[in-house]
Write a structure and sequence with these properties.
Order of helices and strands: HHHHEHEHEHEEHEHEHEHEEHEE
Number of helices: 12
CATH class of the largest domain: Alpha Beta
Strand content: 5-15%
Helix content: 40-55%
Amino acid sequence: MESTAPKTRKITIADVAKKASVSPGTVSRVLSGTNTLVRISEKTRKTVIEAARQLNFYPNYAAQSLASAKTHTIGVAICQDQTGRGFIGMYEAMIISGIEEAAHEQGYDILLMSLVDPVRDIERCKRIFLQNRIDGLVMITSPERDIIVKELVEMGETVVAIDAYGADIGIPCVNIDNIKAIKIAMQYLTSLGHRKIGFIGTLKDQEGIEESLRRKGYEAGLKFANIALDPAYIINGSSVSNRTKGPTGGTFDDGYIGVKELMSRVNGLTAVVCHNDLVAAGVIAGLNQAGKKIPSDVSVIGFDDSIVSRTTFPSLCSIRHPTELMGKVAVDLILKTGQDNSKLNINRRYVLDAELVIRDSVSPIA
């Protein structure tokens, strides 16, 4: 027996226009994000968005894409190696969250991709662009993926990088000043009287660019405080024989093994600056096992201000990435390019400031 219940009438742009007391054209421009010569006030934009929300109206992006070639989707690519396949670190997860939030605020969705094989990934990225499935691509990238970036740039596609070196591979880059961030942490420690400060990076075979920049920040902090650089205080893959095998480096084991090596080299160690929060968590565990009290014996600073920093005991002092802002800047760059048909400044580096979050893992020298 067929239902005789009346069908609910589909809400249209005309309904939203009537409720917001504007023209259908204004509704279309507001909800599509189209940048036109007709200026729309912020008050009108908010009125239209609220009217659409109250009426549960959502634009038909499939139909819009046929007319405007816009998909209202931004691709997000995470570049990984084979050993790290399927593994998303805390830093990447926070960046993705910032991108998704910024995209959602503009009425866009994201398409998440994991790039592992450079040869296959080139064809994959080309296909996604040529099939008009995304309006732009944000890459959380690595030097090994330069070839992908170059091919996409040659195709004239809109690509933005979030990393430590994107401006060197022909696309705009959004990142933080890693050297300045670590230097701020060092200045905080030296202001509290610390002089015997170690640095623990990752125990990978080769030092990555990001790790190198953070080590340079450590060295800059020593120089600023007139403390002589001693290589014995630096623990990384090139200075130890007992390396770890984490998928991306910067693991708990790096810190746990690294701090034992550091204590065997340095007498009277009072502080450790770490490559990231996971390394710092491993350092705290290693110090505890050695009978050291934190922070009265040894202070510890991490990097990323991830959830790890709130789960260690004591709570971890850490450098915070402006992840939400990084995602917003990357998304805004892509959307601005699409709205006014401008070209990205491929040599532009958007450097944002990180901040030191003070917690219980640091104390002054007694």
